[in-house]
Automatic annotation (TrEMBL):
Protein family: Belongs to the methylthiotransferase family. MiaB subfamily.
Domain Radical SAM core stretches: 139-366
This protein's encoding gene: miaB
Cofactor note: Binds 2 [4Fe-4S] clusters. One cluster is coordinated with 3 cysteines and an exchangeable S-adenosyl-L-methionine.
Pfam families linked: Radical_SAM, UPF0004
The protein's name in its UniProt record: tRNA-2-methylthio-N(6)-dimethylallyladenosine synthase
Protein backbone atom coordinates (compact mmCIF):
# COMPACT_ATOMS: atom_id res chain seq x y z
CA UNK A 1 0.00 0.00 0.00
CA UNK A 2 1.46 3.47 -0.90
CA UNK A 3 2.25 5.72 2.05
CA UNK A 4 -0.94 7.62 2.89
CA UNK A 5 -0.70 11.41 2.90
CA UNK A 6 -4.23 12.66 3.52
CA UNK A 7 -6.91 11.74 6.08
CA UNK A 8 -10.53 12.36 6.92
CA UNK A 9 -12.19 11.69 10.29
CA UNK A 10 -15.92 10.87 10.35
CA UNK A 11 -17.48 10.83 13.83
CA UNK A 12 -20.79 9.20 14.79
CA UNK A 13 -22.75 9.20 18.03
CA UNK A 14 -22.24 11.34 21.09
CA UNK A 15 -20.43 14.62 21.74
CA UNK A 16 -17.54 12.74 23.33
CA UNK A 17 -16.96 11.18 19.91
CA UNK A 18 -17.02 14.62 18.28
CA UNK A 19 -14.35 15.73 20.73
CA UNK A 20 -12.28 12.57 20.24
CA UNK A 21 -12.58 12.99 16.46
CA UNK A 22 -11.20 16.53 16.66
CA UNK A 23 -8.28 15.34 18.75
CA UNK A 24 -7.57 12.47 16.35
CA UNK A 25 -7.49 14.96 13.48
CA UNK A 26 -5.08 17.16 15.44
CA UNK A 27 -2.82 14.15 16.15
CA UNK A 28 -2.83 13.16 12.46
CA UNK A 29 -2.05 16.75 11.39
CA UNK A 30 0.79 16.99 13.92
CA UNK A 31 2.23 13.77 12.47
CA UNK A 32 2.34 15.37 9.00
CA UNK A 33 -0.87 14.07 7.39
CA UNK A 34 -2.97 16.62 5.51
CA UNK A 35 -6.69 16.91 6.23
CA UNK A 36 -9.03 16.17 3.29
CA UNK A 37 -12.37 17.94 3.38
CA UNK A 38 -14.13 15.01 1.74
CA UNK A 39 -13.91 11.35 2.79
CA UNK A 40 -13.73 10.15 -0.84
CA UNK A 41 -10.54 12.18 -1.48
CA UNK A 42 -8.66 10.96 1.61
CA UNK A 43 -5.98 8.25 1.61
CA UNK A 44 -7.08 7.24 5.13
CA UNK A 45 -10.62 7.45 6.42
CA UNK A 46 -11.08 7.20 10.17
CA UNK A 47 -14.56 6.02 11.18
CA UNK A 48 -15.04 7.12 14.77
CA UNK A 49 -17.88 4.81 15.69
CA UNK A 50 -20.78 4.46 18.13
CA UNK A 51 -21.92 1.21 19.78
CA UNK A 52 -24.80 2.46 21.95
CA UNK A 53 -27.61 0.96 19.89
CA UNK A 54 -27.68 -1.85 17.33
CA UNK A 55 -28.47 0.47 14.40
CA UNK A 56 -25.34 2.55 15.03
CA UNK A 57 -23.14 -0.56 15.03
CA UNK A 58 -24.70 -2.04 11.88
CA UNK A 59 -24.11 1.25 10.10
CA UNK A 60 -20.34 0.90 10.59
CA UNK A 61 -20.22 -2.35 8.64
CA UNK A 62 -22.45 -1.07 5.83
CA UNK A 63 -20.35 2.13 5.59
CA UNK A 64 -17.15 0.11 5.33
CA UNK A 65 -18.68 -2.08 2.60
CA UNK A 66 -19.72 0.98 0.60
CA UNK A 67 -16.31 2.63 0.98
CA UNK A 68 -14.49 -0.53 -0.11
CA UNK A 69 -16.61 -0.74 -3.25
CA UNK A 70 -16.04 2.91 -4.14
CA UNK A 71 -12.32 3.04 -3.47
CA UNK A 72 -10.67 -0.34 -2.78
CA UNK A 73 -7.25 1.36 -2.42
CA UNK A 74 -8.42 3.53 0.49
CA UNK A 75 -7.12 2.79 3.96
CA UNK A 76 -9.82 2.42 6.63
CA UNK A 77 -9.27 2.93 10.35
CA UNK A 78 -12.07 2.07 12.78
CA UNK A 79 -11.97 4.06 16.03
CA UNK A 80 -14.46 4.65 18.85
CA UNK A 81 -16.71 2.28 20.76
CA UNK A 82 -17.27 -0.32 18.02
CA UNK A 83 -13.48 -0.65 17.75
CA UNK A 84 -13.28 -1.24 21.49
CA UNK A 85 -16.18 -3.70 21.58
CA UNK A 86 -15.42 -5.74 18.49
CA UNK A 87 -11.61 -5.46 18.29
CA UNK A 88 -9.91 -7.84 15.87
CA UNK A 89 -13.33 -9.12 14.72
CA UNK A 90 -13.61 -5.98 12.55
CA UNK A 91 -10.33 -6.81 10.79
CA UNK A 92 -11.57 -10.35 10.12
CA UNK A 93 -15.08 -9.41 9.10
CA UNK A 94 -14.53 -6.14 7.24
CA UNK A 95 -10.83 -6.27 6.23
CA UNK A 96 -10.03 -2.85 7.65
CA UNK A 97 -6.45 -1.65 8.17
CA UNK A 98 -6.48 -0.14 11.65
CA UNK A 99 -8.60 -0.67 14.78
CA UNK A 100 -8.06 1.80 17.60
CA UNK A 101 -10.04 2.14 20.85
CA UNK A 102 -11.18 5.35 22.60
CA UNK A 103 -8.33 5.23 25.13
CA UNK A 104 -5.58 4.54 22.58
CA UNK A 105 -6.10 7.02 19.74
CA UNK A 106 -3.00 9.05 20.57
CA UNK A 107 -1.28 6.11 18.78
CA UNK A 108 -3.41 6.51 15.63
CA UNK A 109 -0.69 8.11 13.42
CA UNK A 110 1.76 5.30 14.24
CA UNK A 111 -0.88 2.60 13.72
CA UNK A 112 -1.66 4.10 10.28
CA UNK A 113 2.03 4.24 9.34
CA UNK A 114 2.60 0.64 10.46
CA UNK A 115 -0.47 -0.65 8.63
CA UNK A 116 0.68 1.09 5.44
CA UNK A 117 3.86 -0.97 5.38
CA UNK A 118 2.67 -4.24 6.90
CA UNK A 119 -0.28 -6.12 8.34
CA UNK A 120 -3.39 -4.48 9.86
CA UNK A 121 -2.78 -2.90 13.26
CA UNK A 122 -4.87 -2.90 16.44
CA UNK A 123 -4.69 -1.05 19.74
CA UNK A 124 -7.60 -1.32 22.17
CA UNK A 125 -5.54 -0.94 25.33
CA UNK A 126 -6.87 1.11 28.22
CA UNK A 127 -3.54 2.30 29.61
CA UNK A 128 -3.30 3.76 33.10
CA UNK A 129 -1.58 6.86 31.78
CA UNK A 130 -4.16 8.83 29.88
CA UNK A 131 -3.90 9.59 26.17
CA UNK A 132 -4.33 13.29 26.88
CA UNK A 133 -0.69 13.80 27.87
CA UNK A 134 0.41 12.37 24.51
CA UNK A 135 -1.90 14.47 22.32
CA UNK A 136 -0.87 17.78 20.70
CA UNK A 137 -2.19 21.04 22.24
CA UNK A 138 -5.43 22.55 20.91
CA UNK A 139 -4.84 25.28 18.30
CA UNK A 140 -7.98 26.24 16.36
CA UNK A 141 -11.55 25.67 17.45
CA UNK A 142 -14.99 27.22 16.84
CA UNK A 143 -16.73 29.55 19.32
CA UNK A 144 -18.32 26.59 21.11
CA UNK A 145 -15.82 23.87 22.02
CA UNK A 146 -15.91 20.55 23.87
CA UNK A 147 -13.53 19.57 26.65
CA UNK A 148 -13.48 16.05 28.07
CA UNK A 149 -13.04 16.15 31.85
CA UNK A 150 -14.20 12.66 32.78
CA UNK A 151 -14.51 9.39 30.94
CA UNK A 152 -16.03 6.02 31.57
CA UNK A 153 -18.82 4.77 33.78
CA UNK A 154 -19.08 2.47 36.80
CA UNK A 155 -22.86 2.53 37.03
CA UNK A 156 -23.59 -0.55 34.89
CA UNK A 157 -27.14 0.23 33.89
CA UNK A 158 -28.29 -3.16 32.61
CA UNK A 159 -28.99 -1.97 29.03
CA UNK A 160 -25.79 -0.01 28.47
CA UNK A 161 -22.48 -0.86 26.75
CA UNK A 162 -20.63 2.24 27.94
CA UNK A 163 -18.99 0.65 31.03
CA UNK A 164 -17.54 -1.99 28.69
CA UNK A 165 -16.48 0.23 25.78
CA UNK A 166 -15.26 3.26 27.72
CA UNK A 167 -14.07 1.52 30.88
CA UNK A 168 -14.18 2.64 34.50
CA UNK A 169 -14.82 6.23 35.63
CA UNK A 170 -11.66 8.33 35.37
CA UNK A 171 -11.43 12.08 36.05
CA UNK A 172 -8.77 14.20 34.41
CA UNK A 173 -6.66 16.29 36.79
CA UNK A 174 -7.90 19.79 37.69
CA UNK A 175 -4.82 21.61 36.35
CA UNK A 176 -4.84 19.77 33.02
CA UNK A 177 -8.48 20.79 32.49
CA UNK A 178 -7.89 24.46 33.36
CA UNK A 179 -4.84 24.45 31.03
CA UNK A 180 -6.88 23.00 28.19
CA UNK A 181 -9.70 25.48 28.80
CA UNK A 182 -7.21 28.36 28.48
CA UNK A 183 -5.79 26.83 25.29
CA UNK A 184 -9.33 26.51 23.88
CA UNK A 185 -10.07 30.18 24.64
CA UNK A 186 -6.77 31.19 22.98
CA UNK A 187 -7.83 29.03 20.03
CA UNK A 188 -11.13 30.93 19.66
CA UNK A 189 -13.60 29.34 22.09
CA UNK A 190 -16.14 31.56 23.88
CA UNK A 191 -18.11 28.66 25.27
CA UNK A 192 -16.86 25.33 26.61
CA UNK A 193 -19.00 22.26 27.17
CA UNK A 194 -17.41 19.95 29.71
CA UNK A 195 -17.88 16.36 28.63
CA UNK A 196 -18.02 13.04 30.41
CA UNK A 197 -20.14 9.89 30.29
CA UNK A 198 -20.88 10.87 33.89
CA UNK A 199 -19.53 14.38 33.85
CA UNK A 200 -21.01 15.33 37.22
CA UNK A 201 -19.10 12.44 38.82
CA UNK A 202 -15.94 14.44 38.06
CA UNK A 203 -13.78 14.73 41.16
CA UNK A 204 -10.10 15.04 41.96
CA UNK A 205 -10.63 13.56 45.41
CA UNK A 206 -11.15 16.96 47.03
CA UNK A 207 -13.30 19.01 44.67
CA UNK A 208 -16.47 18.33 42.70
CA UNK A 209 -17.64 19.53 39.29
CA UNK A 210 -19.09 22.64 40.96
CA UNK A 211 -15.60 23.70 42.11
CA UNK A 212 -14.14 23.01 38.68
CA UNK A 213 -16.85 25.19 37.10
CA UNK A 214 -16.08 28.00 39.58
CA UNK A 215 -12.39 27.83 38.56
CA UNK A 216 -13.26 27.88 34.86
CA UNK A 217 -15.56 30.87 35.42
CA UNK A 218 -12.37 32.81 36.25
CA UNK A 219 -10.68 31.97 32.92
CA UNK A 220 -10.38 35.25 30.96
CA UNK A 221 -12.40 35.30 27.77
CA UNK A 222 -14.53 32.27 28.63
CA UNK A 223 -18.09 33.56 28.52
CA UNK A 224 -20.12 30.37 28.83
CA UNK A 225 -19.80 26.99 30.51
CA UNK A 226 -21.99 23.92 29.96
CA UNK A 227 -21.64 20.27 30.93
CA UNK A 228 -23.07 16.97 29.76
CA UNK A 229 -24.04 14.10 30.42
CA UNK A 230 -25.00 13.82 34.06
CA UNK A 231 -26.35 11.12 36.36
CA UNK A 232 -29.11 12.06 38.86
CA UNK A 233 -27.17 10.51 41.78
CA UNK A 234 -24.11 12.69 41.13
CA UNK A 235 -25.87 16.08 41.35
CA UNK A 236 -23.90 17.35 44.36
CA UNK A 237 -25.09 20.35 46.34
CA UNK A 238 -21.91 22.16 45.21
CA UNK A 239 -22.89 21.71 41.58
CA UNK A 240 -26.49 22.75 42.22
CA UNK A 241 -25.23 25.86 44.06
CA UNK A 242 -23.00 26.68 41.10
CA UNK A 243 -26.18 27.00 39.01
CA UNK A 244 -27.32 29.76 41.36
CA UNK A 245 -23.98 31.51 41.76
CA UNK A 246 -21.78 31.17 38.68
CA UNK A 247 -22.82 33.69 36.01
CA UNK A 248 -21.09 31.90 33.10
CA UNK A 249 -22.76 28.55 33.88
CA UNK A 250 -25.65 28.35 31.42
CA UNK A 251 -29.17 27.54 32.66
CA UNK A 252 -29.39 24.14 31.04
CA UNK A 253 -29.24 20.64 32.48
CA UNK A 254 -29.26 17.35 30.60
CA UNK A 255 -30.20 14.80 33.23
CA UNK A 256 -31.31 11.44 31.80
CA UNK A 257 -34.02 9.57 33.72
CA UNK A 258 -34.79 6.77 31.19
CA UNK A 259 -38.13 5.74 32.73
CA UNK A 260 -40.81 7.00 35.08
CA UNK A 261 -41.51 3.57 36.57
CA UNK A 262 -39.74 2.49 39.76
CA UNK A 263 -39.97 -1.19 38.78
CA UNK A 264 -38.30 -0.48 35.43
CA UNK A 265 -35.69 1.84 36.97
CA UNK A 266 -34.76 -0.96 39.34
CA UNK A 267 -34.50 -3.50 36.51
CA UNK A 268 -32.33 -0.98 34.66
CA UNK A 269 -30.09 -0.74 37.75
CA UNK A 270 -30.40 3.05 37.62
CA UNK A 271 -29.98 3.31 41.41
CA UNK A 272 -32.41 6.23 41.61
CA UNK A 273 -36.18 6.27 41.83
CA UNK A 274 -38.78 8.40 40.08
CA UNK A 275 -39.17 10.37 43.25
CA UNK A 276 -35.47 10.91 43.97
CA UNK A 277 -35.07 12.15 40.39
CA UNK A 278 -37.95 14.60 40.77
CA UNK A 279 -36.51 15.83 44.08
CA UNK A 280 -33.14 16.53 42.43
CA UNK A 281 -34.94 18.58 39.77
CA UNK A 282 -36.79 20.50 42.48
CA UNK A 283 -33.48 21.49 44.10
CA UNK A 284 -32.00 22.48 40.73
CA UNK A 285 -35.07 24.57 39.89
CA UNK A 286 -34.91 26.24 43.29
CA UNK A 287 -31.29 27.24 42.56
CA UNK A 288 -31.99 28.36 39.00
CA UNK A 289 -35.70 28.87 38.32
CA UNK A 290 -35.31 29.46 34.58
CA UNK A 291 -33.22 26.30 33.99
CA UNK A 292 -34.00 24.35 30.80
CA UNK A 293 -34.25 20.63 31.51
CA UNK A 294 -33.34 17.91 29.07
CA UNK A 295 -33.36 14.14 29.41
CA UNK A 296 -32.97 10.73 27.80
CA UNK A 297 -35.70 8.08 27.71
CA UNK A 298 -35.81 4.43 26.74
CA UNK A 299 -39.14 2.84 25.79
CA UNK A 300 -39.73 -0.89 25.62
CA UNK A 301 -37.18 -2.02 28.19
CA UNK A 302 -37.67 -5.81 28.73
CA UNK A 303 -40.84 -6.41 30.74
CA UNK A 304 -42.13 -2.83 30.46
CA UNK A 305 -45.93 -2.96 30.75
CA UNK A 306 -48.37 -0.43 29.32
CA UNK A 307 -48.97 0.90 32.84
CA UNK A 308 -45.21 1.28 33.44
CA UNK A 309 -44.85 3.12 30.15
CA UNK A 310 -47.68 5.42 31.26
CA UNK A 311 -45.60 6.17 34.37
CA UNK A 312 -42.98 7.58 31.98
CA UNK A 313 -45.65 9.71 30.29
CA UNK A 314 -46.83 11.04 33.66
CA UNK A 315 -43.26 11.87 34.70
CA UNK A 316 -42.80 13.78 31.46
CA UNK A 317 -46.03 15.67 32.13
CA UNK A 318 -44.72 16.59 35.56
CA UNK A 319 -41.25 17.76 34.45
CA UNK A 320 -42.06 19.53 31.15
CA UNK A 321 -38.67 19.22 29.48
CA UNK A 322 -37.24 21.92 27.23
CA UNK A 323 -35.89 19.13 25.03
CA UNK A 324 -35.29 15.40 25.25
CA UNK A 325 -33.96 12.37 23.45
CA UNK A 326 -35.95 9.17 23.35
CA UNK A 327 -35.02 5.75 22.07
CA UNK A 328 -36.43 2.29 21.54
CA UNK A 329 -34.65 -0.21 23.75
CA UNK A 330 -31.94 -1.98 21.77
CA UNK A 331 -30.49 -5.21 23.18
CA UNK A 332 -26.71 -4.99 23.32
CA UNK A 333 -24.67 -8.22 23.38
CA UNK A 334 -22.95 -8.75 26.71
CA UNK A 335 -25.30 -6.52 28.74
CA UNK A 336 -27.60 -8.11 31.37
CA UNK A 337 -30.83 -6.72 29.87
CA UNK A 338 -30.17 -8.44 26.53
CA UNK A 339 -30.88 -11.79 28.24
CA UNK A 340 -33.88 -10.66 30.28
CA UNK A 341 -37.29 -12.21 29.77
CA UNK A 342 -40.10 -10.12 28.29
CA UNK A 343 -38.37 -8.50 25.32
CA UNK A 344 -40.93 -6.10 23.82
CA UNK A 345 -42.31 -6.48 20.30
CA UNK A 346 -41.16 -3.95 17.69
CA UNK A 347 -44.71 -2.63 17.04
CA UNK A 348 -45.26 -1.97 20.73
CA UNK A 349 -41.97 -0.07 20.95
CA UNK A 350 -42.85 1.95 17.84
CA UNK A 351 -46.21 2.89 19.31
CA UNK A 352 -44.73 3.89 22.70
CA UNK A 353 -41.95 5.90 21.11
CA UNK A 354 -44.45 7.83 18.99
CA UNK A 355 -46.67 8.60 21.96
CA UNK A 356 -43.72 9.70 24.10
CA UNK A 357 -42.24 11.86 21.36
CA UNK A 358 -45.60 13.53 20.75
CA UNK A 359 -45.65 14.87 24.32
CA UNK A 360 -41.94 15.68 24.38
CA UNK A 361 -42.30 17.65 21.14
CA UNK A 362 -45.30 19.48 22.53
CA UNK A 363 -43.31 20.39 25.67
CA UNK A 364 -40.34 21.56 23.61
CA UNK A 365 -42.55 23.80 21.52
CA UNK A 366 -44.20 25.18 24.64
CA UNK A 367 -40.81 25.90 26.18
CA UNK A 368 -39.72 27.70 23.00
CA UNK A 369 -42.97 29.72 22.91
CA UNK A 370 -42.38 30.78 26.51
CA UNK A 371 -39.10 32.49 25.51
CA UNK A 372 -40.88 34.82 23.07
CA UNK A 373 -40.64 38.34 24.46
CA UNK A 374 -37.49 37.62 26.46
CA UNK A 375 -34.20 39.43 25.96
CA UNK A 376 -31.11 37.25 26.11
CA UNK A 377 -27.53 36.94 24.91
CA UNK A 378 -26.80 34.55 22.09
CA UNK A 379 -23.48 33.17 20.89
CA UNK A 380 -23.23 33.24 17.10
CA UNK A 381 -21.99 29.82 15.93
CA UNK A 382 -22.47 29.79 12.15
CA UNK A 383 -24.07 31.32 9.08
CA UNK A 384 -27.72 30.50 8.40
CA UNK A 385 -29.24 29.24 5.14
CA UNK A 386 -30.12 32.64 3.68
CA UNK A 387 -27.61 35.43 2.93
CA UNK A 388 -26.91 37.61 5.97
CA UNK A 389 -28.68 35.18 8.29
CA UNK A 390 -26.68 33.98 11.31
CA UNK A 391 -27.38 31.19 13.79
CA UNK A 392 -26.67 31.44 17.49
CA UNK A 393 -27.51 29.62 20.71
CA UNK A 394 -29.59 31.02 23.55
CA UNK A 395 -28.54 30.41 27.17
CA UNK A 396 -31.16 27.59 27.14
CA UNK A 397 -29.43 25.93 24.16
CA UNK A 398 -32.11 26.87 21.63
CA UNK A 399 -31.06 27.74 18.08
CA UNK A 400 -31.75 31.40 17.35
CA UNK A 401 -31.88 32.82 13.83
CA UNK A 402 -30.89 36.48 13.38
CA UNK A 403 -31.17 38.38 10.09
CA UNK A 404 -28.06 40.45 9.32
CA UNK A 405 -26.36 39.02 12.38
CA UNK A 406 -22.78 39.75 13.45
CA UNK A 407 -19.87 37.37 12.66
CA UNK A 408 -19.30 33.90 14.11
CA UNK A 409 -18.04 34.13 17.68
CA UNK A 410 -20.01 37.29 18.56
CA UNK A 411 -22.05 37.44 21.74
CA UNK A 412 -25.04 39.71 21.17
CA UNK A 413 -28.18 40.65 22.99
CA UNK A 414 -31.38 39.85 21.14
CA UNK A 415 -35.10 40.07 21.70
CA UNK A 416 -36.82 36.77 20.93
CA UNK A 417 -39.72 37.62 18.61
CA UNK A 418 -40.93 34.23 17.37
CA UNK A 419 -40.61 30.54 18.17
CA UNK A 420 -40.82 27.34 16.08
CA UNK A 421 -40.60 23.71 17.23
CA UNK A 422 -36.81 23.66 16.69
CA UNK A 423 -35.68 27.28 16.63
CA UNK A 424 -36.32 30.87 17.65
CA UNK A 425 -36.12 34.17 15.80
CA UNK A 426 -34.11 36.95 17.44
CA UNK A 427 -33.74 40.65 16.66
CA UNK A 428 -30.68 42.57 17.83
CA UNK A 429 -31.73 44.43 20.97
CA UNK A 430 -31.67 48.19 20.92
CA UNK A 431 -29.94 49.55 24.04
CA UNK A 432 -32.43 51.22 26.42
CA UNK A 433 -31.87 54.91 27.00
CA UNK A 434 -30.44 55.53 30.45
N1 LIG B 1 -31.03 0.90 23.97
C1 LIG B 1 -31.64 2.09 23.79
N2 LIG B 1 -31.15 3.25 24.26
C2 LIG B 1 -30.00 3.21 24.96
N3 LIG B 1 -29.28 4.17 25.55
C3 LIG B 1 -28.18 3.61 26.10
N4 LIG B 1 -28.17 2.29 25.89
C4 LIG B 1 -29.30 2.00 25.18
C5 LIG B 1 -29.86 0.81 24.66
N5 LIG B 1 -29.28 -0.37 24.83
C6 LIG B 1 -29.69 5.57 25.58
C7 LIG B 1 -29.91 6.07 27.00
C8 LIG B 1 -28.71 6.92 27.24
C9 LIG B 1 -28.45 7.48 25.86
C10 LIG B 1 -27.10 8.02 25.62
O1 LIG B 1 -28.69 6.37 25.02
O2 LIG B 1 -31.09 6.84 27.04
O3 LIG B 1 -28.93 7.95 28.20
FE1 LIG C 1 -24.66 3.90 30.48
FE2 LIG C 1 -25.95 4.10 32.83
FE3 LIG C 1 -23.33 4.71 32.67
FE4 LIG C 1 -25.14 6.32 31.53
S1 LIG C 1 -24.96 5.89 33.74
S2 LIG C 1 -23.20 5.60 30.60
S3 LIG C 1 -26.68 4.87 30.81
S4 LIG C 1 -24.23 2.68 32.35
Amino acid sequence: MPTPKTFHVKSFGCQMNVYDGERMAEAMAAAGYASAADATDADVVVLNTCHIREKATEKVYSDIGRMKKRRPDQMIAVAGCVAQAEGAEIIRRAKVDVVVGPQAYHNLPQLVADAATGAPTLDTDMPLLSKFGALPARRRVGPSAFLTVQEGCDKFCTYCVVPYTRGAEVSRPFDAIVEEAKALVDAGAKEITLLGQNVNAWSDGKQDLGSLIRALDRVDGLARIRYTTSHPNDMTQGLIDAHAEVPSLMPFLHLPVQSGSDRVLKAMNRSHSRDSYLRVLERVRAARPDIALSGDFIVGFPGETEAEFEDTLSLVAEVRHAMAFSFKYSPRPGTPAADMAGQIAAEVMDDRLQRLQAVLNRDQEAFNQATVGKRCTILIERAGKKPGQMLGKSPWLQSVIVEDGPPVGSLIEVDIVAAWPNSLVGVAAVAQAA
